[in-house]
Write a structure and sequence with these properties.
CATH superfamily of the largest domain in chain B: Thiolase/Chalcone synthase
Number of domains of chain B: 2
Order of helices and strands of chain B: EHHEHEHEHHHHHEEEHEHEHHHHEE
Order of helices and strands of chain A: HEEEEEEEE
Distance between the termini of chain A: 33 Å
Distance between the termini of chain B: 18 Å
Number of helices of chain B: 15
Number of strands of chain A: 8
CATH class of the largest domain in chain B: Alpha Beta
Oligomer: heterodimer
Number of domains of chain A: 2
Mean pLDDT of chain A: 95
Number of strands of chain B: 11
Radius of gyration of chain A: 16 Å
Structural class of chain A: mainly beta
Largest interface: A-B, 34 and 37 residues
């Protein structure tokens, strides 16, 4: 199947996550890259797009350790959370597991772990997290 | 428009902020409106007020939508047209801006603007979730961030890039509690020590409990009119001479900078240019210290100091009540409290008091120009207003 016929949407981004892939879109007219993906290039308004697949690892840009969380995450507290930069300057945020908070460092190498099958309730998306790279 | 008065503020009112167990949001809004009406006896509210613009962040807190006409009714102005503005914690500054547009366009002569939020009856996890709705859902809420978490990400970035310290952030809390102790309407009217701030429990590293503004109940309002009509209603109007607003991506991770709010820099530029003033001309300011790091970043975004020097700015005492540029004389969000939808116009209320010499024990001497800086969410929205004494 030509994956570039799949919709360039957040729903499709999460379908890729459930398959263990992290995907962004790139505009074939102006070259702009979008993570999260956008179904129309909002730099030049072209609809000629393609999926690009990122190596699921990157560097920690900034971090926190969350002690007070909403109900869905309360059982995980305290948990580390950060913004991760992949290749080509694309970023995602997420929980960082398997690390002591004292060992968190800006610039440390992390890899992405594709955690689970889609949630049973709305929005029925899977989740992902990061852990220190081997 | 450079330097001209956009509108006059002829009165303002503020409910007491804090845990107001006996009251719902609409009753607090009436408390604020009653004060504004009482301060301005020459105004007949039912005859003179043409419309309401109100800010409220969330329907979830009181399970109440469609609040604007209800608030018209609850302040005795049944049938006055009313519209709610929503840009998270900047909702009432946005309501003010809409009010300014409506008066400047000639559509209305006198409008009441304000905001409210009733939060304390909810549990902390509920409030964390409701406030979190102002963050991006698919990539921030879904992956487990919180509001303190978003500002903590900025704090870590600021510390890493500029060497800002937890002590400097703590000094913001100490200053604002000092000012709040002088404000009879503040949620917290007590001083705190730097040690107490640094020893308080962790909420989202590096932000501790005392780095965070509280969950509060409260309401605010202001009455604005065309500048040429102001003296008909009051001898002590203040004038809004600049209004700026900027936007940025909702999600923090998509922004160019994690140590500065682009929306604030855009809003500041627009407001300063409109007012025809420079940062050094500001005599007193109320800035959006939802977390202590946010105030440090505000010093920089507003041009009160250079990028990266916000920590030094507080350490040098410049924004203290008796410093060169007093900031958050009301106690700020940190100590006065942060009923999110009320905050923007609550800042206007404090500047109104300062510019009319009614700020009591926290009065800043010889202040002529005041500024308000109200941020929505983690910085996707910022509104800045510049006011001048009459």
């Amino acid at each position: 199947m030509d994956e570039n016929s799949l919709p360039f949407t957040i729903e499709q981004f999460y379908k890729f996550i459930s398959e263990g892939r992290v995907a962004a879109t790139q505009c074939m007219e102006c070259g702009a890259k979008f993570l999260p993906p956008r179904p129309i290039c909002t730099k030049c308004y072209s609809k000629k797009l393609r999926w690009i697949y990122l190596e699921p690892k990157g560097k920690l840009v900034t971090y926190t350790v969350i002690y007070v969380a909403p109900p869905r995450f309360q059982h995980l507290t305290p948990y580390a959370y950060g913004i991760i930069e992949f290749e080509r300057g694309l970023r995602l945020p997420g929980i960082i597991r398997m690390v002591d908070s004292e060992d968190l460092k800006v610039g440390m190498e992390l890899e992405m772990v594709f955690d689970s099958s889609p949630s049973n309730e709305w929005p029925m998306w899977p989740t992902y997290y990061f852990k220190p790279a081997k | 428009m450079k330097g001209r008065s956009l509108v006059a503020v002829i009165s303002a009112g503020l409910s007491r902020f804090g845990k107001r167990e006996e009251f719902t949001g609409r009753e607090l809004f009436l408390e604020a409106a009653y004060e504004a009406f009482s301060r301005c006896p020459d105004l007949d509210p039912r005859r003179d007020v043409n419309a309401l613009f109100v800010g409220m962040m969330g329907e979830s807190f009181e399970h109440q939508g469609h609040v604007a006409p209800m608030l018209s009714d609850w302040i005795g102005l049944l049938s006055a047209p009313a519209i709610r503005a929503e840009v998270a914690c900047a909702s009432s500054a946005a309501a003010l801006r809409l009010g300014i547009f409506s008066v400047l366009s000639g559509f209305y002569d006198v409008v009441l603007v304000g905001g409210l939020e009733k939060m304390t009856k909810r549990s902390t996890p509920e409030n964390t979730e409701f406030l979190g709705m102002a963050a991006d859902f698919p990539f921030e809420q879904w992956t487990g961030v919180t509001f303190p978490g978003l500002y903590a990400l900025m704090a870590t970035a600021h510390m890493h890039r500029y060497g800002t310290t937890e002590e400097q952030m703590g000094m913001v809390a100490v200053k604002n509690h000092h000012n709040g102790a002088l404000n009879p309407k503040a949620h917290f009217q007590k001083e705190v020590t730097l040690d107490a701030v640094l020893d308080s429990r962790m909420i989202a590293y590096p932000l501790k409990l005392y780095d965070c503004s509280p969950i509060s109940d409260g309401a605010s309002c202001a009455i604005i009119t065309r500048p040429e009509l102001a003296r008909k209603y009051t001898d002590s109007p203040v004038y809004i001479i600049g209004s700026g607003q900027g936007s940025d991506s909702l999600a923090l991770f998509q922004r160019d900078s994690l140590t500065s709010l682009k929306a604030a820099r855009i809003a500041a530029r627009e407001a300063y240019e409109m007012a025809g003033i420079k940062p050094k001309d500001v005599d007193v300011a109320e800035v959006h210290d939802c977390f202590t790091i946010a105030e440090i970043i505000a010093y920089e975004d507003l041009g009160f100091c250079n990028p990266g020097e916000g920590g030094r700015f507080i350490e040098d005492g410049i924004p203290m009540l008796d410093g060169e540029l007093p900031i958050n004389t009301s106690g700020g969000l940190k100590s006065k409290g942060h009923p999110v939808g009320a905050t923007g116009v609550a800042q206007i209320y404090e500047i109104y008091l300062q510019l009319t010499g009614q700020a009591g024990k926290r009065q800043v001497e010889k202040c002529k120009i005041g500024l308000t800086h109200n941020v929505g969410g983690s910085g996707a929205t910022c509104l800045i207003h510049i006011l001048k004494g009459g």
